[in-house]
Every structure is written in structure tokens, then in C-alpha cells.
Amino acid sequence: xxxxxxxxxxxxxxxxxxxxxxxxxxxxxxxxxxxxxxxxxxxxxxxxxxxxxxxxxxxxxxxxxxxxxxxxxxxxxxxxxxxxxxxxxxxxxxxxxxxxxxxxxxxxxxxxxxxxxxxxxxxxxxxxxxxxxxxxxxxxxxxxxxxxxxxxxxxxxxxxxxxxxxxxxxxxxxxxxxxxxxxxxxxxxxxxxxxxxxxxxxxxxxxxxxxxxxxxxxxxxxxxxxxxxxxxxxxxxxxxxxxxxxxxxxxxxxxxxxxxxxxxxxxxxxxxxxxxxxxxxxxxxxxxxxxxxxxxxxxxxxxxxxxxxxxxxxxxxxxxxxxxxxxxxxxxxxxxxxxxxxxxxxxxxxxxxxxxxxxxxxxxxxxxxxxxxxxxxxxxxxxxxxxxxxxxxxxxxxxxxxxxxxxxxxxxxxxxxxxxxxxxxxxxxxxx
Length: 432
Known about the structure:
- The chain is built from 13 helices and 12 strands.
- The chain is of the alpha+beta class.
- A hairpin with a 4-residue loop joins β8 (340-342) and β9 (347-350).
- The radius of gyration is 25 Å and the shape is globular.
- The termini are far apart.
């Protein structure tokens, strides 16, 4: 602040002018402070349980941000980007961070057809099933607040729900055995009235489950079965408990408190402006269909930088109570021994050496995404593509640069050696 220099003695007229000037100055300064204070209050005001207790600026120590071989790692990632993203004509963004430190970040392509809206760090892109991680954490915050329990059955919230053993926990861990809404709605004969609508909703999915009672795909809690229906119902549960819409609940509980300023839940009103996705090659638009407004399992539109804030928050000791936080990354599908498993809203790979890779991929129409949250190294890897290509999933292999994940190191080597089968793969290894 600069100070006004005054003569030692002021004449009456000078004194009056000075007092007037000082009054105006103090008034403006006061208004500014009130405005800033009001802005801060508005930003954090909600009656819902939320992640506003996390201080994003103080999550990591200096040691968490340090890498002894940073320069060579950044050079290697840049080489990967030029080879896979530039060489593969991908569209979207990629970010790799160690703690607070963004090691690498790059963007290319366009968000809208006709080469409109060049993609940059502030461009929200659809992350498809990576949305499940955010839906899960909203539910975990409600559980922490005592608003709902993991053991609660869906029959307690949805009258007529025909699957008595399905609980909040079996939804989060993908063990409900519920049929996949993408498929069971097409098998109902005659076709339900809901299917004549341009877009069906989460409530429509629930109504059809209640009315038509399709068979379970497998008995509840007998094993893992990846199913979008689980997270569509979790979104409805969040609405039921919070008494506000899912898009609003996510803003108040997760996005706003974590300063995810370019993040939202896609709704019909967003169609004219939201980023679009494209078929492989990038010129043909992937059109919306009747399932495109169902949320919880998908429909988070965000940026790599916003997702980094989310990842940083999860590293914080204040994110959730320790016992709840541990549950997120505990494997729940252990009936069959194998590398792949699922926690609460997170996939994981548990390698022979005992190391665990926690992540989630996404795919919907022309969107492919990767979100890796590396527990030991405190590294975040994010890749979002809006021009369909399995090459986007190769970003997960970058995890092998930071932790002892032998299979990921091997996959990365294959990618860098232009192993076409690896680059184009879209199965369990690199798929959703």
C-alpha cells in the first residue's frame, strides 16, 4: 500500500479536501473488502455436507513435490505425447502431476464441430465413467455426515424396489448384480413408454426397474460386475438424501468447495455449448442418444486441472475420516484371484509384488478418459480425449514411471515401440 504524504500543517481548505479524499478512499477500500468477503462466503455457503474443509494449498509437503529425475521424466512424457497424441492425431488434454507440481500438461484439438472452440486448460470435456469416482465421493461425504449408511438397503428409499439385498455398499463396489440399464430397457416387450422420449432420465431407469422387475444379472454380493445402473441409482440416492437435484448437489458438495471452476453435470440446457465427441478420425460428430442425460455413471464435464484438484483433495488427511478413506481403496471382489479389482468408485490393479494401482477409465460414445490417483508416489495422471481412440488409455501406463508396476512399465515400453495391438486395445487393460 502507498501512503499519502502530507505537509506538517494543513490550511482549513486543504484539511477539508484531505478529509473528503480520505473518506472516499476508506469507503472504497471497505466496499472492496466487503465484496471480497461476501464472495468468499457465497462460494462456500451450503447446508449440505461438503469438502470445504480441505485446504488444497496445504495438502503436500515439499518432499511430496520433489523428483530427483524430474527433467528426464518430463522429457520422456513429452516424447510419449508427441508419439501417441500428436502422432495419433488425438484431441483433448493430458496432465501429469507430482503432488502440487504439474510435471506435464498439453492440449490439442477442438471441442465443437467445425473446428470450433480450441481445447485448452479451461475447456470442460466429458470424462464418461471417470464420473463414477466423483459420484462415489459425494456419497462417502453423506455417509461420513451420518445422512445415510453403507448398509442401508435401497428398499428403504425407493418404494417397490424389487431387489431387497441391494445396499449402498453393493452399488459403490459394483456388486449389486443389477442388470445394465443400457441393455435391459431394450428387452422389455412391448417397449415401455419411457423409450419414446427423446431422453430418458435416472428416474425413468428406476421406474422401469420397479415396474418390469428384470432378472438380476447375478445374485447380489456374490461377485464383481461392472454396471452403470449402480451409479445411476447412487445419483438418485444423493438426490433423495440431499433433497436437491444431483447437478446442484455435486456443485455444492464437491465442485465448488474444491475450486473445480470448470466442472458441471451435463444437462439438456448444456447441449448448445458443451464440448462434443467425435468418431475415430475426428470429422464425424458422435450424436447424442436417449441415454445421454443419465448421470452419476457419467456426464461429469471437467478439465484436467479441475480433476487434479479433486485428486489433491483425496490425498488430504482432512478428505474423509481415516476409516472411510481406507474403504475407498480396499478391494471388495476377491472371490476370484486376479490382478483386477474394484473399491468404492475406483478400479485397482494389485500386482504380484503387492503394489496397487488405483484409477478409473472412461468411455462413452467418442469420449475416452483416464484418471490415475497413485497412492504411494502422490502422482496424478489425467487424460481426456473427445475423438474416439483407444490410444488415450495408454496414458495409464505412465504410472510405471513413478511406482513399481512391472506390467505398466512393459505396456509403456510397447507403446513407445509402436506396438499397434497395445495402442489400439480397448479391453480390460486400457478400456473402461
